[in-house]
Amino acid sequence: MLTKLAAYPKTLSFFLGWLAVAALPPFYIFPALFVSLPGILLLIQDAPCSRAAFGRGYAFGFAFFAFGLSWIGNALLIDAAVFGWLYPLALLACGFFFGLFIAVPAWLSWYFKPLCAKYFAFPALWVLFEWLRSFVLTGFPWNLLGTVLAFDDRLIQFAAVGGTYALSLAVLFITAAPAFYIHNRTRRTLAAALAIILSGPVFLYAFGAFRIHNHPLDESDIKIRIVQPDIPQKIKWRDDVLETNFAKYIALSQTPGQEDIDFTVWGETASPFPLDLDAVHLRQLLPAVPPQGYLVTGLVRYQFDRISRYIPYNSMFVIDRDGNIPAYYDKSHLVPFGEYIPLRDYLPDWIRPVANVIGTFRSGPGPQRIELPGYPSFGGLICYEIIFPHQIVASRNRPAWIINLTNDGWYGDSAGPRQHLVAARLRAVEEGISIVRAANTGISAVITPLGIVSASLGLNQTGVLDTFLPQPADFSTTYGKYGNTLTLIWCLCNLLLAFCLTFRTLHIKNYFNRDTHSEN
pTM of the prediction? Predict the structure, then answer.
């Protein structure tokens, strides 16, 4: 057995978790999962007790999340003098906390006998805990395992049925299949493993190819201009360059062709000035507004309470050529320790948000639909709000498309911005909706309802992206209607099957033990 060959199973589990990171975007070394996932499944199978299974799962999860989320530490280096010392602690914290979301499934899976029961139980529990990860402590469903398929547009189309969680479940079943042959090397187990390994990708590919072929999407007559100034985060909020940064957005917005633009879109907190309170800079901005359209920009909005204290919101404003603000959206899903401090009353005063430009933000009411005369309705999302499956639109008041403003300049040239784009693509597939993504340093993109990037500006590029908004989809998605229900039912069915296999195994074992005792 695998653990007999490994003198240190927890060390091996840690290595397998690190190896699994290679399959994530933007690396996409998918074959790595054919080693890491069968490996951890067999290590759970051979664990002498549930506690050992928990430890092996925790070692795997610690490495998977510590290395898979290592790009988060780059945000701490923007103000290295203040936050730099937290860099290694951030990596450890990611491993220590998020590792539990694999350790607990490993622990619970140990109770299922034999290996075939674990084969159904472990993927189901993994996905159930991925789903829980989108809610616990405000949620952080980053790097869902289904994202490893995003290297091909066809392979992610099944998300329209069961969401990214369904893709995660499929990936686990496909890549863990070699465990059968490694555990018991017979022709029967080899045939079973090969059948799963071959049929799964073929089904996903064929389904995706059929769906893309049968839903060709044309461009609408709405022209979008995305402005990407590539302003380094270290100088974005420096007092001596605020005016220069603002002027750069305005200048880029006025490049030739502006008269044909319907929406000019700037990124998250693109305006360093509160335009509803600052008439001078609002007038300065007006030449950047398309003559017959609107400018959409991120900024900090302030609201004052009855005792004259300001309440800041991370917001998106829609501005017309006359300087009116017909609509705005306040970010509702804030970043813990980035935009606010959880349990503020119980923590020391010296702990403050990393993005401490103005203090702790207040959250908005949630997804909403913005209506403008002559245009299809759209929704607003700011930054990582796009990573939450089935939480990006109001189900009873769905918009026709979405504008997602972000500022990935915090994370430099790392996996983070690229993984953020993949999350946006998967939300587009799940909901069947176009997404216009504007990022300060990139990657800015227009994404069709099939999750296909129709136009983009690369990371750390300065420029404007002029393109037409895709036509609204003439189809609805199963996931958009039912959300995670189908995938959760699939997980529960797998657990029920694992229970049945375990019960059958224990029943047979007890039967033979009874016969042996009676003969004696």
Answer: 0.92
